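Hi,

Apologies if this is the wrong queue. I'm a grad student, and the batch job for PH domain-containing protein from Hymenobacter daecheongensis DSM 21074 produced an output file that my downstream script rejects. I'm not sure whether the problem is my script or the file. Here is the sequence I used:
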Amino acid sequence: MKLFPFLRPLLEISGAVLAVIFGLRLITGFFTKASRVYRPTFGRQLYLLFWPLLCLGVGLPFLASFFFFGPLSSYELVLLTAVAAVVLGFAGPALALHAQYYVRNLHTTLVFEPKQNILEVYESGVPIPFAKSDLQRVEWVTCASPRLFWSNYNFLRLHLRDGRAITLTALLTNLEPVAGFLRNSNMEPRQRWCCFL
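Support response: The file is valid. Your script probably expects a header line. Output copied below for reference.
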């Protein structure tokens, strides 16, 4: 008896859709030049969420199957708890970081062209005026371990002399070139286990 007769076609359709999206993205990538305008995009979010969502996709159906078998023995309960801890332990922090970064930078646009010395930030289409000389200090916060699902989540916080702080998260783009561009602006590199804002 199959527990989830609809699960296999759903997974096959999801796999086909993802293959088409990645194929189109790869083909269009050959014909477009590198952008200098960065905002939260579907492709960037999929890149950051791929492993956490895969972990949930594999672990949650397994966990759900325990609830269809009726009462659980103590061995099954321990196994269920261990699997739930692993699935949520790996995927949970990444999903929490993604939600926090999404709320912070949903309406943020970054314009970055290091060869022309351009770094501009817009919130909801309105520019936030500042120059490199206005930067009091720059926090560059990265994950302490490069092997965790949430290790790609990092952020830059630009502290301006007038007291404002501008936060740029990994949801916009890979921030390492931006951090390199700002390395002479009183950079404060920090490492955390999980880069919550």
